[in-house]
Amino acid sequence: MPGQQQHVDLHRKLLLRRRLLRGEKTGLAYVPFIGDGDIAAEVYPGWTIFGADLDSARVEVARERLDGARVEVADCDGWPFPDVRRQFHMADFDAFAYPYASFRAFWANARKARRLVLVFTDGERQAIVRAGVLRHPDGSKEQLDDLRQRRRLFNFYFRKVVLPWFRDYIEPYAIVRRGFYLRGMMLYWGAVIERETVGG
């Protein structure tokens, strides 16, 4: 419902995005899991925003808050904008738990600028420690029966699981700059990536 708290430590989320966007120009921003549109309103003024959320009440709030934005009621694990043929410069996957299905749908379907800023909210470390299940960014699942393996993956999840997959997945793009922080069992991270140009 509108008015419920959507974010914890909102200032840290905003700071991560602002640091990644430093020096970037405005353009098209894709914001799945847009909620009330509060992050988009704070960080992306001047951007052309395409947002989505399953919560129709929150979508209405986001539409009112974000003048000129196109915000749809949609499953963010799919691609809600098949008619949009312009290039995106930014995508903000502020999912509560698993942002990578949404990211994969965006990556497979959206047109992307040569330089792109991506941000993720990832709660998968909770499942590692609580249920012994690792859901990889590619969607596959792994049961972790060894407690030492659980602890190791919990502690090094970003470096050992997410980053290697991400680097391979985004080729021919490469990471130019990245940032991250942990809060409890949550991972918040983002990257500026660039596509290499053929012939220099």
Explain this structure to me?
The chain has a single domain (10-127, 166-195), classed as Vaccinia Virus protein VP39 (Rossmann fold, 3-Layer(aba) Sandwich). Helices cover 34% and strands 30% of the residues. The strands form two sheets. The chain has a seven-stranded mixed beta sheet with strand order 3-2-1-4-5-9-8, with helices on both faces. With 200 residues, the chain is an alpha/beta fold. The longest helix has 13 residues, at 157-169. Mean pLDDT is 94; it is low at 1-5. The chain contains seven helices and nine strands.
How many helix segments?
Answer: 7
Query: Main β-sheet, in a few words?
Result: 7 strands, mixed
Radius of gyration: 17 Å
Quickly count the domains: 1
Q: Any idea what the CATH superfamily is called?
A: Vaccinia Virus protein VP39
The number of distinct β-strands equals 9
SSE arrangement, N to C: HEHEHEEHEHEEHHEE
Strand content: 25-35%
User: What portion of residues is helical?
Assistant: 25-40%
Point out poorly predicted stretches. 1-5
CATH fold-level assignment: Rossmann fold
Global geometry: globular
Head-to-tail CA distance between termini: 50 Å
- CATH domain class: Alpha Beta
Mean pLDDT: 94
Structural class: alpha/beta
Order of strands, main sheet, comes to: 3-2-1-4-5-9-8
CATH structural architecture = 3-Layer(aba) Sandwich
